[in-house]
## 1
Amino acid sequence: MSALIQEIPVKSVASPSQTFTAKDMQSDQEVRWCPGCGDYSILAQAQRIMPDLGIPKHKIVFVSGIGCSSRFPYYMNTYGFHSIHGRATAIASGVKLTQPDLSVWVVTGDGDGMSIGGNHLIHLLRRNIDVNVLLFNNQIYGLTKGQYSPTSEKGKVTKSTPFGSLDYPFNPIALALGAGATFAARTLDRDQKHLQMTLKRAAAHVGTSFIEIYQNCSVFNDGTFEQFTDKGVKDDNIILLDHGKPLIFGREKDKGIHMNGFTPEVVSLKDGHYSVNDLLVHNENDTTLSFILADMTYHPPLPRPIGVFLSMDRPTYETEMVHQIEASKKKLGDGDIKSLLNSGDTWTIQ
Amino acid sequence: MPSREERNIMTETRQQLEEVTIRFAGDSGDGMQLAGTQFTNTAATMGNDLSTLPDYPAEIRAPLGTPNGVSGFQIHFGSVEINTPGDFCDVLVAMNAAALKVNIQWLVKGGAIIANIEGFTDKNLRLAGYTSNPLDDGSLSEYQVFPVDITKLTELALQEMNLSSKLVDRSKNFFALGMMYWMYNLPMETTLHWINEKFGKKPDIRDANTRVLKAGWNYSETAEIFKVRYEVAPAKLTPGHYRNMTGNQASAWGLMVAAKKANLELFLGSYPITPASEILHELSMHKNFGVKTFQAEDEIAGISSAIGASFAGALGTTTTSGPGLALKTEALGLAVMVELPLVVIDVQRGGPSTGLPTKTEQADLLQVVYGRNGEAPIPVIAAATPADCFQAAFESARIAIKYMTPVICLTDGYLGNGSEPWLIPDYEKLPDISPKFRTDPEGFLPYSRDKETLARPWAIPGTPGLEHRIGGLEKKNLAGNIDYSPKNHDLMVHLRAEKVARVANDIPLAEIEGDQQGQVLVVGWGSTYGAIRTAVQRHRSKGNSVSHLHLRYINPMQKNVGELLSRFKTILVPELNMGQLIKILRSNFLVPAIGLNKIMGLPFQAEEIETKIEELLQGNKS
């Protein structure tokens, strides 16, 4: 995986005077998340990788909506816009279309991004505007003090669902892929290295990058991702997606994913029936495969896939917008406002 | 044998008219809007003053031949000042029975009906709800009826061309148009030129329309069914260069010129909605001016993307109508809080809810002035005529940029779709409205303020050393960080209110048309301008003490409005709503104003206002 990171094309290069450190990324605002919140780790990793992107900090913009995660921009010493519930993706679209050379990041949550902001999220993804979306998924509403969210598991008992929730949860990766995402990845607040790697991959991807980050809410949904993060159990419950590598998992690397027709299944590599050669090999450029992997999400005993599901090239909206403007100027000439005002059927009154 | 010219002189009676109103009416697919627009452009190029009103159904193609599917276009043109599309029409072109049924109410007694005979078959009559044929049952005896077999004559004109029956049928609007050109002695050149431009690459359609237009003209000349031919002399308009302009096009151009004068990129984030979509369409055509149009996924994304664009240094704009504005409300509050320039054009339509999408109303006034959570003042400007939409949009942008605030520009369906001659402005004489972006990091505070305007600095991403955060949570004065403390909130609420109030220092004083004091002052805003002006002029010509004050600035109002109101015994406020401006006038100035309200989806007729004024004058005497 580290090999992949090195292949990342650098989009813009800072002059030496514009270099900065992770510490420079910290704003003067006191961070006010609850003790033990997964957001702290995500903030730290984001601050850590920013200097490595080669983008001067005045070219970076963080836009957020409403929710715990959406306080994020206040703590980043870049340009920031803490907006209104669900609309960060729409605001970020306007920012990026106006200044396509900015590095634009959206920080959102499962409620902000998929309930109230679901519409804007899917349209950003299909347009493929080069914005990086970090969706902090804690499967709960934190800021409003503990109601179920669109990613809460069915039957969840919360303040607003004392008898258990009736809603079937969204699978954020499947939603993103269904909306036409060109980059979709899942990572974990507790895995610093993987999180950093994923953030860098997102930054490098030209087009909308969608990252679902499993984030622990220590107050209202503590431990909900323990099975994917705790040392004793995680290896049997997650599978790391690694481009070009067979899908192997388990504490002893003794299990793998085999395709039975179109259906993935867990097979043992120990009992002699299957070898590594029988396993599904990850190809993050394959859209069909990405859907299959995404669908492994709520289907135990299949392990939860973590990593880059899809990374593919498609022209970005803003590039095509600029091209269209250039083409129009080439065809019709630079717009002359005085000629426009005097165009059409005109007449003179003496 | 006399020449054609001599024959004309011999057989025709020519009559000079000061003003005429014509209404074209037919099925939605009959091309009545096109016929009306062409007639308008020709009358305009001939130097007439004019005003138009399209009246079309919300359904794209309602069932053929039914009253629901009738589309109309009224044009009022003259050699005198024309302020409205006309209360009633002098000539009604009815392409079928339903068109007659729906529109006969708008025809003056003694007016002319040009009826397409083919449109009055038994089926047409049944669909229109007639039990007998009005063309021959005597029910139209108060009018002059000219039955013409337009469909058949169109077919004859095109019979050698081997065209599809659909294409032949679609050309018949040009026959009616040709007849009207003959009747009002207007040249066909403007339309012939347009046909060539529009259908140059489709010779079949070009030739068919050309032939039919000329056939309509020639038929009128030779068939001698019209005994009188009319002439309307050019109007005495202010000298200058003119073109015909609809309100929506004027709004679009106003934004483009404002962006150019501001040296900013123009960004429009918009979602299609009747009757505002034409602004999006118009701006989308001008990519070579660098205009960026973004058809968003919904109204909220339209305004949100525009706010993002403004944050990044563009002139962010969004266009909508009432239901869309309701959806944008929360984002408007955000724009108030983050203090970024934003122009919102609301082309009002009949409400509430989906209401009457294609009909006009002025019922969004209280929504735009007050309809937000918290204390969220926004400057509001209203356009008075179709061409005035240009200045209103430009002025909205000027205020938005100078005061770092969202501005709402109110127009309506009647202004947006209506048209009038537009005195093309001298670009050089329009003011420079360019902002000064903050670039100096020394002492930069995102919420420091300009001493005069109280505007905060515009510091856009990409500027080294000015990295800062803004958002919808209450801002700490100067620093802009989150601050919930009581005194700070009180201060910020007052600062935002004072900033908007100070716009009043920057706008010209209101002016009264007519006597500066007296009996009745008619106070209006928006698209009622023409009807009020006509009604007031009629009274003034009779020597009555009646004056007119038309408010362009709804919030804040011009500083002298209260004083002007105090000079009159009676104040009349005509509005196409239940009385919205009147509430503001009463609350701001404690005046006992009287309302005249109409909520029918239609503009005022000058006569309605004239009558109400008469009533008030009588009351003042007794």
## 2
Amino acid sequence: MTPDQHTLDMIALTREEYELACERLDREPSDVELGMIGALWSEHCGYKNSRPLLRLFPNSGPRVLTKAGEENAGVVDIGDGWCVAFKIESHNHPSAIEPYEGAATGVGGIVRDIFAMGARPVALLDSLRFGPLTDARNRYLFQHVVGGIGGYGNCLGVPTVGGEVAFDDSYSGNPLVNAMCVGVARIDKLQKSSAGAAGSLLLLVGADTGRDGIHGATFASVELDEKSDERRPAVQVGNPFMEKLLMEACVELAEEHGDWIVGMQDLGAAGLTSAAVESAAKAGAGIDIDVAHAPRREDGMSAYDLMLSESQERMLIIVSPEHEADVRAHFERWELHCVVIGVVTDDGRATVRDSSGTAGNGKVVAQLPVELLSDPPQYRRQGEKPAWLDDLQAYDLSALPDTEDANADLLRLLGTPEIASKRWIWRQYDHQVLTNTVVGPGSDASVLRIKGTRRAIAIATDGDGRMCYLDPYAGGVMAVAEATRNVVCAGARALAVTDCLNFGNPEKPDVYYQMEQCIRGMAAACEALETPVVSGNVSLYNETSSDGGQPRAIYPTPVVGALGLMEDVDSVIPMSFQSEGDDVVLLGADTPRGDVNALAGSEYVKVAHDGLIAGQPRIDLELEVRLQRVLLAANAAGLVRSAHDCSRGGLAVTIAEICIESGLGLDAAGVSISGRVDAALFGETPSRIVVSTSDAGALLSRAREHDVPALRLGVVGGDRIALGVEIDVAIGDARQPYENGLASALAADGAS
Amino acid sequence: MRFAIVVFPGTWSDRDCQYVLRDVLGQQADLVWHRESSLDGYDCIVLPGGFSYGDYLRCGAIARFSPVMAAVARHAEAGRPVFGICNGFQILCEAGLLPGVLRRNDSLQFRCEDTFLRAENVATPFTSTLELGQVITIPISHAEGSYYADDTTLDELESNGRVAFRYCNADGEPAPESNPNGSVRNIAGVVNERGNVLGMMPHPERAGEELMGGSDGLLLWRGVIESGVEAVVG
């Protein structure tokens, strides 16, 4: 029977897509089949709008062991027989509706992706975006997202070591919750997610299946509206204790009994349907499942429910038949349910049976070619640069009056939630468990040692939606440049990145333009910085119509997670000044002259000029490459005592952050600022790093050798932050707004 | 010395304890699943941190019924060292091997940060390397670490020297603002009457190397190791 529009809307399939499915199938699909097609053809699972653009990313390199899309996570060789598996993923839509559980299950999902590879999860990072905290709903979302991340990760015993958060109007009602997980494994213990040869058994392990999360993948692929609350049943509820058992059992299985199993696959979006079909597709095989065997939480669940449920904390383990008993005993020791629900076949079809209750014995309720499910239609849309963007970029920032009191502006900036210390957040996260955390939250990047070696990895997430909004291409370059620069500032060489692409509705030409330009910018930066994209996730339809009007897209927000490696953990670079008397040098610029273009998209202009976000941000990618190289070369030569890159708030904020963290001042009063003072102090020109050194002469000559402009700023010491004649603030006075800014913003209850 | 580190479903600082004992201090340190009923042959039992059984119902309330707990009780009765950290402290309280309970932090939030601890009793195996009043830095990581007991119990603990550690400031003063969770009388750790069972919320296994930001935790482990023989005999 041809489904009505309501049914198609529920699974987010267009009439044309339905007809295409019928044509390829040569008949109309059954209910269960239709649900399976809808889930796997959703943007969330099928990447139907983004796949052609994702091909622009460089995805290979000498250290890359699995590329983006091949496995549950990207894997990079870090030497000594060890590898790192990592990936970032969004949980935006669930978090908008039920922030605690949405964020918690976002963490749970990304952790499963990592241990499905046989890697032990060792770190979590979270990249968050919210509307302004002056609004009560945004404060609620923020506090409960942070609560959910902590509630899940802390219980699991995986440290949350970093991430970032930003605030802008465009995220009101549609927060971004992107979670990244990093795991470590011996290369020879890595697991695949392929189904392997016919006859292998499919074991469903972990939580029982309930009705939660049905249509979650679909939900992630439509715009949010005032009826979104009705989709609350599509939000899953997490059980971190179950996840902990599952994680330990799967990691131990991979480490000690890898020969018993063919592969592992987590059940995420689109549940059993996606896990089984993806495994089969990778092996060019088929699967035959009987849902009657699935342990369930309630009576009366249909085959449709069981195939599409997104109940959390479940894994599919593919086992060669001779080891079935071993694997079952293994999971039972961990006190986990474990049942055979199907078998791998060689007929290339996904067959679903239901021999439970009334359905009768082995009745086939769905039988579809795997290839039909795993090969959704793809759309190459036509983007168009919107006229409003031309206007924004042409905005005459030079017409704005310059700062009249730079000290007051600095203190004001330090207290904005955007810039203020994020300690309020990360003190709620266990960032130390597993005792690998050499540098924890609050620095440019977090650093983890790899036990049993001298090595350490550095990890960071970044992505500036505001810059992408003003210039999607430059913003895309900047996202990769800043994430990699951050791991370089910690003393590591950037090896590879993962990305989470958060955009609005791609069917709109301006949104598609943003997406395409961002991706092109990111791809160019990944090429230039030699950091291939090894994994990632796409989150589209991030739009809300909070006032009942037209849905409005979020800022285009690609978030990049960078992985860096240092051969010796002793080469870690701290963010804080180390000793009085050290020289301080700015790498990346050779003049303190303020250029008005540096104000584009800056926090200063937003704060000082009534929320204005305008201008055209720029980045010199070749300079960025040279800058990152010179910092690592100088560090290898023992010339770097500390490093912190300039980002939100510009040079003055960067220096203030270092002084507050280290409790040591900077005397750079001799620097003679010219041009626009606001641009010189608070402009957000990228590709700049503030470095302290015991040998400024040697560092400056290194910079010249690498053709990187550099400027000696002053000397570490005292208890004041002095920069030119314009800035002179006691560290104690700067610390006050910086430490309290976030808590004060959250305490503003009733202010909305 | 032979350490048994008990692993309950949901325990997570088992490997951290094992790493510091085995790889940093060169001791034998075995992970022992909670279904074991014998701990014979071990000198010291460690109940590590984590969320046993997800902290569902109440932290430590389910783990106390694990088969291994009878062996832990026998070990304690024999006067041998039992060291409960974080969730391990909560379990020891639930099992009645230590007095008091751990409640939600007064902030109602999880807290992971360094704390200063003042040594209040240096006559236990765990604190034998410390000076009375010495201030050490050990991180906490918990949502339910607010120690509580009634005043009678507290007075008895105080008069018998059974408060092992108090949260304090850098100068060793147990100030209200240096109390991270609302524990009564700033109590961070207590011992049983004989001094061979210690429970504390802070994590000494996380302060085992300068690379991790500090090594004061080693003082406690070394105390156990150095006084090990006496403890077994006593």
